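ok so I'm stuck.
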Amino acid sequence: MPTYAYPEKKSKKKLILFIVIILILAGLGIIAYFLIPIITAPTQENLQSSFNTYSNYLLYGEKTDKSLDNIYEPSTTYYMEKILADSSTQEASSYYNELESLFANSLAKYNRLLDDDKLPSNITALSEALERHKLLLDFARKYAMVQELSEESLSEKYLTSGETGVQILVSDAYQSLADDKNDEVRKYGELRIEQFSSLINALNAYRDAGCIVSGKANNDCINTQASTNTAALENYRKFYEAKDHAHVVITVNRDDLLSGCWIISAELSALVGNK
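replied:
not stuck anymore, here's the structure
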């Protein structure tokens, strides 16, 4: 009975075609491996564009890469602050998460350009400015999430729950900040704890003088003691001192963060212009 070679030839053709396809795909993969990083590698221009987008979102709430105009005005209320004042905690959190994502994108482009030796070697000041800006943005986000306490609310809590009740509130609000790795965040948390610990000590002094009994404050007694109770006076001095220092931390960090947008943008513009 005769045999036919046709099926065997057809099988070999399929095998050859399969091998050719595999080789083509492998070749395309190798090309893509080397070509894609080149195509997607950041340039100084799109680093500038990326940082502009971040800055405009922080300052004006707009995702646009247009260059910053005018100059920093300390008296101006920028969009970041309006969000803090007018929005819920959840809305503020969403805004700051997006803000950090935009900045992280810019920082990643900058670090990639550094790694690829596509930036001048004498840009230490710019690197330090970006690192400082990262810490300031972290401070701004964590400060925005704090439920700030007041002298009035804690004084009322002292009357109803005593020293322990106030300590719990203060710890819940600020202890995580005081334990933070970011020096600016930690400093702020420590100052708030110092501030309200001094308030507790002042109220304890009035209590010990008999002006606070069974959760009730004798205002006449407190008014009489206000100028003579040494312990209360000293602790109120510490209270206001820590409060003022905390306000300075907030103000300086706010100014440095906002003005940093113009400073860093100018540095990046100079890089692009000097190519």
